[in-house]
Write a structure and sequence with these properties.
The protein is α+β, with helices and mostly antiparallel strands and 387 residues long. The chain contains 12 helices and 13 strands. The protein has a 4-stranded mixed β-sheet with strand order 1-8-9-10.
Length: 387
């Protein structure tokens, strides 16, 4: 890397991408059960293809009739915006094969003699934060999400006519000395109506680059490096154009490749599954550490074993030059944070129906809401880390 310069790229996909349709439906199922019993267990997978949706997985909780789940699936599809010949909320064939949770899995997770619960599975989870954006997220994934989120908001309001739900974005940035300097290319591929030609699509979509990315990063962006629907027309999209599955966009969901990933997806899982809850906890810790001013960036890894309540290991990596602070940070975490599965759920108030909103545009870098979503994005513990 000459003069410590390099290019880094991250992508995002919209809520209408077939995989994200599946994530939305799976998280709707999680919320449906948690809204009736906050201690429900849910592991729901969804598949979509041309005018068909299939749900499968394990549930332990109150009885919800199939008809109610199917209606809620249609509501999800309608809200995303699909009423097309090949995929419509009105006519899609929806099947559900949800069944009771395995007793062997439940035994490892349930409380024993009122002691803490064990983790729902083994695995490693990562959290990351950096000072590249106000939300303490890596810049390429942050801007990729924002482009699509703003497009979706305007599409649903009727201000972006002719643009359909399925879209993807990609932002490449030049870094020097590990800091973003400028955007060098942007790719946006979006489904559109047959009434629009590609010049019209470009005219509609181009303004979202400037709406989403600060001027300082795009003022020198070469127009030849902006690619709108580079393969041509994109009329057939969504589950009609490609099948979708829950959990296939784990890098989109997290840090766009700027940090490691343990491999476990989030959507469709209740918070006893540490794939989800421990990844949220690791982000919460990392964000509070960076917010405190200890370091420009922080990476945390947590490791768990099924049926064991405490983390098997906690790994912390700060920016170059801050290595001497790691032991103190570890000490603060050990003294102030209960990172058992139950401790995480109580700390972040995760036993609530807060997950459907997380299914598109990233689980991190979002604003905490008054309804209890995105509690892991708060920086209310940063004072603990001020050394």
């Amino acid at each position: 890397m000459e003069n410590n310069k390099y290019l880094f790229t991250s992508e995002s996909v919209s809520e209408g991408h077939p995989d994200k349709v599946c994530d939305r439906i799976s998280d709707m199922v999680v919320d449906s059960y948690l809204s009736r019993d906050p201690f429900s267990r849910v592991a729901c997978e969804t598949l979509t293809t041309t005018n068909k949706v299939v749900l499968a997985g394990e549930i332990r909780g109150p009885k919800i009739e199939k008809e109610e789940i199917i209606k809620k699936v249609r509501d999800c599809i309608k809200d995303i915006g699909y009423d097309q010949k090949g995929f419509s909320w009105k006519t899609a064939n929806i099947e559900t094969f949800l069944h009771e949770q395995s007793a062997d899995i439940a035994m490892g997770v349930d409380s024993k003699d009122n002691k803490d619960e064990g983790a729902g599975d083994q695995g490693i989870m990562f959290g990351y934060a950096c000072k590249e954006t106000d939300d303490l997220m890596p810049a390429p994934i942050h801007f990729s999400h924002k482009i699509l989120r703003l497009m979706a908001e305007d599409r649903k309001k009727g201000d972006l006519k002719g643009i359909e739900p399925d879209s993807k974005s990609q932002v490449t940035m030049l870094y020097q000395d590990n800091k973003p300097q400028k955007v060098t290319s942007v790719v946006i591929s979006t489904q559109h109506s047959k009434d629009l030609n590609q010049e019209q699509v470009k005219e509609l979509v181009l303004p979202y680059i400037k709406k989403s990315i600060p001027e300082k990063y795009v003022k020198d962006l070469d127009s030849k490096e902006i690619y709108i629907n580079p393969t041509g027309q994109f009329i057939i999209g969504g589950p009609d154009g490609d099948s979708g599955l829950t959990g296939r966009k784990i890098i989109v969901d997290t840090y766009g490749g700027a940090a490691p990933h343990g491999g476990g997806a989030f959507s469709g899982k209740d918070p006893t599954k540490v794939d989800r809850s421990a990844a949220y906890a690791a982000r919460y810790l990392s964000k509070n550490i960076v917010s405190a001013g200890i370091s420009e960036k922080c990476l945390i890894q947590l490791a768990y074993a099924i049926g064991v309540s405490k983390p098997l290991s906690i790994f912390i990596k700060l920016a170059e030059g801050d290595e001497n602070k790691v032991s103190k940070v570890k000490e603060i975490i050990d003294q102030n944070f209960n990172l058992s599965p139950r401790g995480i759920r109580e700390m972040l108030k995760l036993n609530n129906p807060i997950y459907e909103i997380t299914s598109a545009y990233g689980h991190f870098g979002r604003k905490p809401t008054n309804s209890g979503e995105f509690t892991w994005e708060k920086t209310d513990k940063s004072d603990l880390f001020k050394l």
